[in-house]
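Predict the 3D structure for this chain.
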Amino acid sequence: MSYVEDLFSLEGKTAVVIGGTGVLCGEMALGLARAGATVAIVGRSEEKGAERLREIDAAGGRGFFVPADVASRESLSELLETVLAKTGRVDILVNGAGVNSPTPVLDITDEEFTRILDINLGAILRSSQIFGRHMLEQGGGSIINVGSISGLGPLSRVFTYSASKAAVHNLSRNLAREWAERKVRVNTIVPGFFPAEQNRKVLTEDRVAAILNHTPAKRFGDAHELIGATLLLASDKAGSFITGIEMIVDGGFSAMSI
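Done. Predicted structure below.
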């Protein structure tokens, strides 16, 4: 094994990827598996989970699917128990479950606002408490929360989503501060614009043109371009002194002003 391979190797590690049946987190899960981790794909759809597992298997990796409801603390506790029964440990947690809505701000109902905040923010708190306790007892681990470029600055048409992601960024820094001394690192990976299920409703022709005009790379990201950042944050060698950061992967979108 070369120096670089050893630096990023996840052999013997277990990663739990909540939202791993989706486009972006599914690719992150594949990257973790290719680096040697045994990956628990977590989601609602067993069919989508099986599809991700076929990709992992084809790449020579190891993984299994576990259904879970991130809105339920009991379900997340059962998830941890299931993974521990299979692998005995959890070293990496990716919190990637999320929902979006294009509802105009004056039409957002209390029910919609509460639902989006509970999935995008509440679920991360719940899973971080449950898995974080295990990591603290275990002696270390890495939690990677999936934020959003809209959590750094407000974007039109995704009001509640932006508010929830901004809160995720803040929560991540608070957890990083709490747990750094006990070797549990907490970071936020911040995707820019990647075609995915969550944003299809808001990617109109005009909006796509505006995004590309504001992105120095002049294109959308490909899901596999999140893997490098994921491996850096997951590795307890390459990323051992990295905690409390927002790692932006956006083709330069956040660097633009006028």
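The longest helix spans residues 110-138.
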